[in-house]
Amino acid sequence: MKTAIIGPGALGCLFGAYLTEGGLDVTLVDHRPERARTLEAAGVFVQGVRGDHHVRVKATANSSSPGPVDLVIVCVKAYQTEGALRSHGSLVGSSTTVWSIQNGLGNLEAMARVIPSSCIVGGSTTMGANLLGVGRVHHAGEGDTFIGELDGSLSPRVELVAKALSAAGIRVQTRPDIQRLIWRKVLVNVAINALTAILRVRNGVLVEHESSMGVMEEAVREAVRAAATRGILFKEDEALAQAKEVSRRTAGNRSSMLADILAGRRTEIDYINGAIGAMAPAPVNRVLTDLVRALEATAASRVDASA
User: Fold this and answer.
1) Active site residues
2) What SS3 state is found at 111?
3) What is the mean pLDDT of the chain?
4) Which of 88, 115, 130, 250 is most buried (CB neighbours < 10 A)?
5) Distance CA 135, CA 17 (A)
6) Half-sphere exposure in the Cβ direction for 219 (13 Å, CA)
7) Cβ distance 58 to 28 under 8 Å?
8) pTM of the entire predicted model
9) Average pLDDT value for residue range 74-90
10) How much is the pLDDT for 303?
11) Can you name the CATH fold of 180-298?
12) Which tens digit of pLDDT belongs to each residue from 25-53?
């Protein structure tokens, strides 16, 4: 299966390394030529729960080189989705499957503005990975990966992709309720990401204090109500329990939003808490969104402890 992965961040490199080891013909596609050359020359180094791996990979900034391909895996930040597919549209042919495993809401809609919706399948993953440098990844935790057709059918193409992922050692399931699974991950991200970025703490700290747990709980309740406006129903107590369990299970992890804030990068806040605030009354999520946006805007003016 000829595969292109758009976005050589933590997940992109992790999947690229494991799928290459699993026998797929994989190319990492980047918008930065110099980074693509580094990946091509040095390969991907993965350390963590599966031990140390050094995998030689193909990488390019010229998407006309590998494309069209059988499978495109989209791993860019949510705000980069539309631009990435416009830049790398040559990867997508009439029979290409385009699979998003991104965070947040709105990615599938952004993809459909650029490529035929018939190409798109949804996905989600709970595999934990942190980028240590160009092509250097810490695989922090195993998790489950999901793929499914947006109309709920179980098609031959999603079964084929799942079989290839499974052969590479990735725990994968084909699911008819992929939209619900995308929302389920959003409920966790709503609880953890913004608050860890604002407080500058690792995930597990949130459930150690009543004050932070109170904010988590209300953010999740608002997100559950927002999901209901889209016809996707969750029980509040189950959603709250899941968010707290993930916080405990990933206690030592830095959320992706915290990593972005610490590195001075733009976050995905508009596609997580911000998306909730845009679709339903959600004052806590709106305040969390404004605070993270303020962190982004004031990064250059931060006062440190020595000042």
Assistant:
1) 185
2) helix
3) 95
4) 88
5) 10
6) 28
7) yes
8) 0.94
9) 96
10) 86
11) N-(1-d-carboxylethyl)-l-norvaline Dehydrogenase; domain 2 (1.10.1040)
12) 999 999 999 999 999 999 999 999 999 99
